[in-house]
């Protein structure tokens, strides 16, 4: 990781007109009625992002794409209780099921004529196992900070297979989102408009966990790291493919955040117990953002950027200082065009196979 840049979150500029203060119209008009779709919006970082977006822009058309109707309705209710006039709609989407992606995107295409932001945030880390021996060794290795900010060498997961015959982690964290983007292309690539794809990746993404010969990570024990590295590569490929049509893709890492995902690693009472230690570690790494609000910092920061100004080789990290101040910092990703293009080709091939399989199944019934 090289070239770090710290960036403060910017707010809509205000201008004084005849004694009254109003928001700069040129900026505001650009944002009015923007359509934002967030996957995995019913909890954690996704829900915190939605709260922050509505506090920034009351005119947003926000669509929460979630797999569980009850949890989605509860999230919508909590957003409406703090923003009663907000436009918040729901769409049922299980990103790990390709049939669900096709059904949801059909509905989204009927509902909206364009999409300004697509947050690809839903993600899983099933049955995580912590290697406590590696943790103990890491403490005295001189690489403790790196270990705490990336979790490198500390975690393995147990994967399973979906009804489409795909690896669950790959299908959820990457492939379902890839198909989502492909299906929503007409809404994202509108002449005269620019749109943003924003992936919730991770600093746990590691080149050595990923292989072009085993895209789905069937053979390893780190499907999470592999899927997040694949999302970094895919984001670059999407930029190469779609920038000329006004579509821009970026990746972020929210830092270590206390959410359902981390409560799957260690129980919530244990995290609460070691909270003072984590505040202490935060002083040295700033990557322990800990709350969903803090973790959503980079997602929120990107919302306010001109996408043309973003560098496709950088990852945007949410960071929180020892004093609790949030900021976004960029770090260069360990990715290259050749691997990214090769992954993209393989995903297109896989897409064809999946579509063929679904068509065959439809014909059989
Ligand atoms: N927490 C952390 O420390 C870090 C998290 N991240 C990433 O942040 C993202 C958000 O996770 P986080 O907020 O932490 O955890 P949460 O578990 O709180 O949020 C994950 C969200 O994804 C949804 N989701 C999972 N599987 C599917 C699916 N098949 N279809 C649709 N939605 C699905 C969940 O829905 P449901 O409620 O139905 O399960 C939930 O809303 C993930 O991509 C994660 O990898 C990255 C780095 C660190
Ligand atoms: C005293 C301690 C803080 C003990 C906790 C040890 C480990 C369980 C954590 C140390 C670093 C953590 C970490 C993650 C999970 C939990 C740890 C390994 C992540 C891998 C979670 C998901 C992500 O995407 C990463 C950004 C996290 C990196 C740090």
TrEMBL record:
Membrane topology listed for this record: Single-pass membrane protein
GO MF: 3-beta-hydroxysteroid 3-dehydrogenase (NADP+) activity; 5-alpha-androstane-3-beta,17-beta-diol dehydrogenase (NADP+) activity; estradiol 17-beta-dehydrogenase [NAD(P)+] activity
InterPro entries in the cross-refs: 3KSR/17beta-HSD (IPR052834), HSD17B7/Erg27 (IPR042829), NAD(P)-bd_dom_sf (IPR036291), SDR_fam (IPR002347)
Pfam families the UniProt entry points to: adh_short (PF00106)
Catalytic activity: 17beta-estradiol + NADP(+) = estrone + NADPH + H(+); 5alpha-androstane-3beta,17beta-diol + NADP(+) = 17beta-hydroxy-5alpha-androstan-3-one + NADPH + H(+); 5alpha-cholest-8-en-3-one + NADPH + H(+) = 5alpha-cholest-8-en-3beta-ol + NADP(+); 4alpha-methyl-5alpha-cholest-8-en-3-one + NADPH + H(+) = 4alpha-methyl-5alpha-cholest-8-en-3beta-ol + NADP(+)
UniProt keyword terms in alphabetical order: Endoplasmic reticulum, Glycoprotein, Lipid biosynthesis, Lipid metabolism, Membrane, NAD, NADP, Oxidoreductase, Steroid biosynthesis, Transmembrane, Transmembrane helix
CDD domains documented for this protein: 3KS_SDR_c
Recorded metabolic or biological pathway in which this protein acts: Steroid biosynthesis; estrogen biosynthesis; Steroid biosynthesis; zymosterol biosynthesis; zymosterol from lanosterol: step 5/6
Residues that span the membrane, as ranges: 261-281
EC number assigned by the record: 1.1.1.210, 1.1.1.270, 1.1.1.62
UniProt record, GO biological process: cholesterol biosynthetic process; estrogen biosynthetic process
This protein's GO CC annotations: endoplasmic reticulum membrane
Subcellular location: Endoplasmic reticulum membrane
Family listed: Belongs to the short-chain dehydrogenases/reductases (SDR) family. ERG27 subfamily.
Subunit structure of this chain's protein: Binds to the short form of prolactin receptor.
Protein name: 3-keto-steroid reductase/17-beta-hydroxysteroid dehydrogenase 7
Organism listed in the record: Bagarius yarrelli (Goonch)
């Amino acid at each position: 990781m090289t070239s770090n840049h710290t960036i403060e979150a910017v707010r809509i500029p205000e201008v004084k007109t005849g004694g009254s203060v109003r928001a700069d119209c040129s900026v505001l008009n650009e944002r009015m009625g923007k359509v934002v779709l967030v996957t995995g919006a019913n909890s954690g970082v996704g829900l915190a992002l939605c709260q922050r977006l509505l506090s920034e822009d009351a005119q947003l058309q926000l669509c929460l794409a979630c797999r569980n109707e009850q949890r989605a309705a509860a999230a919508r209710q909590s957003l409406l209780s703090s923003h009663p006039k907000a436009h918040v709609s729901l769409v049922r989407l299980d990103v790990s099921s390709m049939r669900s992606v096709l059904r949801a995107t059909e509905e989204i295409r009927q509902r909206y004529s364009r999409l300004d932001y697509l947050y690809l945030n839903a993600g899983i880390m099933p049955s995580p196992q912590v290697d406590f021996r590696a943790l103990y060794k890491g403490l005295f290795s001189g690489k403790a900070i790196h270990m705490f900010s990336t979790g490198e060498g500390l975690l393995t997961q147990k994967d399973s297979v979906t009804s489409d015959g795909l690896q669950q982690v790959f299908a959820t964290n990457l492939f379902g989102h890839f198909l989502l983007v492909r299906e929503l292309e007409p809404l994202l690539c509108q002449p005269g408009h620019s749109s943003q794809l924003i992936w919730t990746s991770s600093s746990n993404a590691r080149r050595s966990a990923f292989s072009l010969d085993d895209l789905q990570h069937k053979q390893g024990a780190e499907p999470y790291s592999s899927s997040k590295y694949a999302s970094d590569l895919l984001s670059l490929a999407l930029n190469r493919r779609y920038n000329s049509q006004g579509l821009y893709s970026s990746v972020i890492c929210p830092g270590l955040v206390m959410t359902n995902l981390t409560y799957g690693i260690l129980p919530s009472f244990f995290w609460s117990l070691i909270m003072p230690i984590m505040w202490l570690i935060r002083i040295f790494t700033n990557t322990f953002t800990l709350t969903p609000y803090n973790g959503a910092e980079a997602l929120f920061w990107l919302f306010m950027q001109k996408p043309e100004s973003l560098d496709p080789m950088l990852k945007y990290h949410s960071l929180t200082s020892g004093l609790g101040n949030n900021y976004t910092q960029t770090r260069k990703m360990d990715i290259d065009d050749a691997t990214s293009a090769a992954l993209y080709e393989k995903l297109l091939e896989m897409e064809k196979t999946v579509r063929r399989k679904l068509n065959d199944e439809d014909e059989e019934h």
